[in-house]
Amino acid sequence: MPGLDTALPLPHEEQLGVALVGLGAYTLNQILPNLPASRRCRLAALVSGNEDKARTVARAYGLGERHVYNYDTFDRIAEDQTVDVVYILLPNTMHRDWTERSFAAGKHVLCEKPMAATVADCEAMIAAGRTADRKLMIGYRAQFDPYNLRAIDLVRGDNRQIGTPRIAVGNHGRMLDLSDSRDGWRAKRDLAGGGSLFDIGIYSLNGVRYLLGEEPTEVTARFMPRSGRSEVEVEEGVAWSMLFPSGAVANCTSSYLIEGVNRLQVQGSEGTVTLDPATKYYVRHLILTRGRTHERIVIPNTNQFAAMFDELAEAIREDREPKASGTEGLRDVRIMEAIYESAEQGRSVSLI
Prior knowledge:
This protein has 10 helices and 15 strands. By secondary structure, the protein is of the alpha/beta class.
């Protein structure tokens, strides 16, 4: 056996079977191609409202038709012993219902972020998991990305390099293309729950939280000017700042009206850590700046998707809460509700 760059996968019978609910662009282009890289999980079933598409995808990935479900037949998945985990990849306002259905079927749940449209929905999802005695994890893939993990270490870990963190910055922006079916639902409040904040601003919010390792105590926000497109029912841009117990301040933005912004940064008393791009699927750049020295850090063989799946499988095996649990998802939704409240009322909102 030659030396291995990555460990071999577990035997098939030791891997957890994952059912994917929703066959949109993210599932087809990111999750399905990366799931085989997981050591501890494997594809077990597909759930889609488009049965022809589901059957086509199932054949491509070697799944028999008996492991293909539609939204009406989903509850029969309780009888499918090949399925251990249900990954919910549907519009945000559908997360609670499908999480509760998955727990009722006796399955563990991985739910895409944001966890849900409201704090009340998040709390109901957590309660359902406890009642079912099953694990709930939120799909914060960036929390498993080696570049983001190295940035955390540089900011506040054993290898901290920038002194006392003072200012954090999070900027995420992209153009919302209403001619693209993958963006159409994001413009609808009854499906998306929120706008750019829910979709991409959550990367700025969650990113500064895990980089600083603190929870904010106060938020101040304002909405940015809109495009005037009548089809867009949600906010297109928001800017907000957060105060942290240490005295650090975070300044963040999200926007559907700017192109290609994907950046996290922490400025400290002795240096700066910059991730730019910070949360893209395959390309991340990490730079440590100290004085006039700029060090670009390169980490080979990274797959944040596989690491996310493996963490859930390990948490299930060890019977512990997974990293990025439902509690983590609830924290972000609670803060996002406060951001909206601040922007709507024109005042700061306490998070204590």
